Amino acid sequence: MRTNKKTQVLVVGAGPVGLTAAISLQQRGIDFEILDKTSGPSEHSKACLLSPETLAFFDDMGLLKSVLARALAIKGIQLFKGTDCTAVFDLSTLPSAFPFIVSIPQGELEDVLVSCLKASKKKILWNHRVARINRSAGGVLVTIDKLGRHMTGYAVMHEEMLVDRTFGLEAKVVLAADGFHSLIRRLNKIPYEAVGDTMGSVVFECQREQNDDTMLTLGFSDLGASSHFPLPNHRSRYGFTMSQLEAVSADRDKSHEVYDEDLGNFSGLGDQELKELLASRMPYFAHRNLDIVWRAAVPFGIRLADQIWDNGIFLLGDSARSGFPLSAKSINHGIPEAGKVVEAVDGYLQTGDTNEIEIVAKSIRTEWEDLASLAYFSAGEGMKSSPENIDLNLVLQTLPLTGDDLTFAAHKLDTYFAKSAKVLKGRS
Ligand SMILES: Cc1cc2nc3c(=O)[nH]c(=O)nc-3n(C[C@H](O)[C@H](O)[C@H](O)COP(=O)(O)OP(=O)(O)OC[C@H]3O[C@@H](n4cnc5c(N)ncnc54)[C@H](O)[C@@H]3O)c2cc1C
Known about the structure:
Blueprint: E1 3-12, H1 16-27, E2 32-35, E3 49-50, H2 52-60, H3 64-68, E4 72-74, E5 76-81, E6 84-90, E7 101-103, H4 106-119, E8 128-136, E9 139-152, E10 158-176, H5 183-187, E11 192-207, E12 215-221, E13 224-231, E14 235-242, H6 271-281, E15 291-305, E16 309-310, E17 313-315, E18 321-322, H7 329-351, H8 355-373, H9 392-398, H10 403-427
Parallel strand pairs: 1-2, 1-10, 5-12, 10-17
Antiparallel strand pairs: 3-7, 4-7, 5-6, 8-9, 9-10, 11-14, 11-15, 12-13, 13-14, 15-18, 16-17
Helix pairs in contact: 1-4, 1-7, 2-7, 7-8
Bound molecules: flavin-adenine dinucleotide (FAD).
The site of flavin-adenine dinucleotide has 37 residues, from helix 1, strand 8, strand 15 and helix 7.
């Protein structure tokens, strides 16, 4: 193996967070490379809601127009308990420059970000997989496998990705945006423990019947949280948290497999199962005739890496922390954080002082710990659950909001349910 290249920053992983970091680096004129083990953007909707905070960040980056052109605006959220709609949250009241949420399939968002890098002539090294990392005098030496497509087999030919060549790349800083199963985190032996509930989620992307849904629906019952969001192009997503999953989709990373082909392994994710889930969890949608175009079963855990910055390596996005299913909190924290981290890295590259990076790493950890514990409605102060017995902390975990917007939503829900408690009391 030979070391044939040096760069200031290496971004590992071209998911939404790694791509955002790469664009921030590009905009600051920092020398960098970005690589991903797969051959292109994801083909699936996965995390498909962008919060007002993320929209404001994309606006600052000059990306908002391109994102909105492929997204659907969602103006309100309705909360259901069983069959009853117990609250409607008008997002236009949020204290934000962009008081709405948009839905955009994750693959489409990645496509927008890839096009932005392409427009500035930056190449992403697709089919490049990190194999090893070592510390070096100049920073971090990363061993990379370049993968190529090859036909193998004799009686039955099939295509496989094999290593064509291995080379080294030395970077002053590595931004490890390599997802939930981050190899870089594991190679560094950084623990990634649960700091909140662990559960699974099953998601169904469906062709939407002719209807003009523009509301996001969150349903709560003893069986768990459920969601429905309209997507652009007449599609929609139904999601259900599960206390346990019998089978999980093969790849928690960006999988290019069509999960439908795995249906043999996912007998629990057929048309009949969707019908049953809707009947038991979101009965108000049970009459819908849905054509499933993609489905997946994903294990989720609210997790946080013990160390986010480790001597030249910064864990970004899902490699640093992962969140509650359905709510898109991971992606909506990860995208703006990528901007903050790049700003701190810029300072470090100019001065050699890691202080700013350490402060950002600490603030990311603290924010995630607070979010995981969600003590907005702790016993003794405020309300823990609504008169309809909805656990308000669970509602906040499930809302695709972050930062000040989430705090605002917490106060609004508290006031709303406190008022309706009085009304109920008055009636009895
Ligand atoms: C099927 C599915 C459904 C989901 N649904 C939801 C949902 O409903 N709501 C929600 O909030 N979140 C959902 N998620 C999670 C969401 O996709 C992630 O939170 C989000 O993608 C995080 O972005 P990221 O950029 O940090 O990581 P990722 O998008 O995971 O990107 C990591 C990238 O790193 C690359 N990579 C990994 N290892 C290496 C290596 N060794 N070398 C080079 N490249 C590497 C991967 O190919 C990938 O492109 C879902 C995930 C899956 C898999």
